[in-house]
Specification:
With about 475 residues, the protein is an all-alpha fold. It has helices at about 1-10, 15-20, 25-35, 50-65, 70-75, 80-105, 110-120, 120-155, 180-195, 195-205, 210-215, 220-255, 275-290, 290-320, 325-350, 355-375, 395-405, 410-465; strands at about 165, 175. Strands 1-2 form a two-stranded antiparallel ribbon. Helix 9 packs across helix 12, helix 15 (about 325-350) packs antiparallel against helix 16 (about 355-375) and helix 15 crosses helix 17. It starts with a helix and ends with a helix.
Length: about 475
Amino acid sequence: MVFSTYLHSFSKTPQKLKKRMLATWTPDQELNKVRLRSGADMKRKLTWYDLVALGVGGMLGVGVFVTTGPVARKTSGPSVFISYIIAAISALLSSLCYTEFSVDVPVAGGAFSYLRVTFGEFVGYFAGANILMEYVLSNAAVSRSFTEYLSCAFGRNDPNSWRVHAHGLMDGYNMLDFSAVALIIVLTICLCHSTKESSMLNLIPEGASFSAVFQQMGWKWASNVVGAGACLGIVASLLVAMLGQARYLCVIGRARLVPSWFAQVHPTTGTPLNATIVLGICQASIALFTELEIVIEMISIGTLLVFYLVSNALIFRRYVILSKNPPLHTLFFLFLLSCTSFAFSLAWKLKLQWWNLLLFATLTISMTFIFQYLVPLVVVERRPDSWLVPFMPWPATISIFLNVFLMTTLKMVAYKRFGIWAGLITLFYIVYGVHSTYHAEEMEMVVVDNNVNTQQTAKVEIQVI
């Protein structure tokens, strides 16, 4: 009976996709109506000081201790400094785009919510799924780096000395890391208990590539110190990421794009308990087997893609939704901008002659000037506490350009893996997500209509009496 009902519902997938894929919510609906679906509210216990500390802890753990050493050793060499500058500019511009959205839509959903209110349900879902993928993979990889640094802190030179070699498994998946699993379990328990106490743990702590450098120089004592410090930094980083990932899944559950069970918030602790536990199990399972090198570029694709989408969304929001301009001109500009950015990046990657780079760069700049001149940006009345990115559309345009450029520097194998992931999450949306959200919205509309009819009937009866 249940299966036949689902088949009947699935037969209407094209109609549901047409209605739901581009369906958008208002910021007010994201803030109020959708949040109520979790039952109890997630408790806001963090002060500005806690948030700053969490941000610093997150950056230090992964950015400094995990990825810098391998990238400098295997890819960029001394030019890692330039790589940092380019990545920093891209991150800064993306953060400006995020900030404007976060002021108007201050919910835990982040890019998922920002894109859902701008480009519709499917784009928001696709971005949210990639953010979760990035969180889980990066946390699993970072926790394995914790084991390497911990072994260095205790004077062990071999980064695999605390891992168990499993014969019969493929290379890259055959070094079992039980220390990483134990760390994830401990942090998951902390996050299930309380957000505030977890942030206090972050204030106490601040890969093993750095320790290895000191060992090669003969400074074993320094290697031990760096190993101990890096362990604390990685713990802080993991804590921040695990805190954010559970809230992302909770908000996606509120939208009914995944089972609503993930959206439930514990009434006592005010934490998304189910989402925290499930994601902890997922990343512990990956951390047990998978090496950092296998997932690092997959993580980069997910992050850069979401940055790219948010920058596009900011331009669309400012020039179409807020300024009330026809959408065609802005969409055409965004399409051409992506094309010229990709052409420039491809010319750079293939080491074509310099005039190709100059041509595509000139086209990008000229298009932006033309768009800025032809499409008016209306300054709408805002709340006193609102904030807008200045000098639009230039910051978002440069952000799009840099994110496309950085994505083209990644290896083809990462795109193959990402293609499989993208296909799976799209299939999940078609098989489950669109039906769940369609049913949820239709049921809520029926409830609203029934309430309105009841009120109208009561009003008529009162007038008759």
